[in-house]
Design goal:
With 216 residues, the protein is mainly α. Helix content is 56%, strand content 0%. The relative contact order is 0.13. GO terms for molecular function: 4 iron, 4 sulfur cluster binding; class I DNA-(apurinic or apyrimidinic site) endonuclease activity; DNA binding; DNA N-glycosylase activity; metal ion binding.
Length: 216
């Protein structure tokens, strides 16, 4: 039997994970690209559960970029305080909304470079929005994806941008968005930091790190 290496091995491992987490999807609640952009910006250093508790009142008060652009900073800070780093997040939300209103006709752009040019929007946030709001493949690299990609031997990089590029080269473009959801689900459930629960892992027999102590 031929030993699978590189892309073939990665896809086989990924397909096994997809069978374990068939319903893996974006955990943030949103109805449109604007709401997903805001929710993802708030999720930095914060749980999705907490963000989902905050956003209903925030979206009711500021349903569009135009509304947020005219917002009072103190009011926005109060609404998002529990997400952490609320002062910086509030400034970025208002600045981002102002740019969307004046330069993008109040619409969230479906373009990576235009998204990352917005205040408070990095490649992770941009790829979340592209993949989930617009159906454009985006390779999200968060703490879970970074950890699992390293453990699986899919990358040796530590920098998120380099990891993103490595995964894009390794995996077919049409799988990028779902890969992020799947790896995040597995990272939260079993392949945790600092110690994975290998004894309960359904793909342990195919993991390159099997039997090796994981330190990250």
């Amino acid at each position: 039997m031929r030993t699978l290496t590189g892309r073939d091995a990665a896809i086989v491992l990924l397909e096994r994970l997809e069978q374990v987490y068939p319903e893996a999807e974006c955990a943030l609640n949103y109805r449109n690209p604007w709401q997903l952009l805001v929710a993802t910006m708030l999720s930095a250093q914060c749980t999705d559960v907490r963000v989902n508790l905050v956003t209903p009142s925030l979206f009711e008060r500021f349903p569009s970029p135009e509304a947020m652009a005219d917002a009072d900073l103190v009011e926005v800070e109060a609404l998002i305080r529990s997400t952490g780093f609320f002062r910086n997040k509030a400034k970025n939300l208002i600045s981002c909304a102002a740019i969307l209103s004046t330069e993008h006709d109040g619409e969230v752009p479906a373009d990576l470079e235009q998204l990352v040019a917005l205040p408070g929007v990095g490649r992770k946030t941009a790829n979340v929005v592209l993949g989930n709001a617009f159906g454009i493949p985006g390779m999200v690299v968060d703490t879970h994806v970074k950890r699992l990609a390293g453990r699986f031997g899919w990358t040796r990089a530590e920098d998120p941008v380099k990891i993103e590029k490595d995964l894009q080269q390794l995996l077919p473009e049409e799988r990028w968005t779902r890969t992020g959801h799947t790896l995040i689900a597995h990272g939260r459930a079993l392949c945790k930091a600092p110690t994975p629960v290998c004894s309960a892992c359904p793909i342990a027999d195919g993991c390159p790190r099997r039997g090796v102590t994981c330190s990250k």
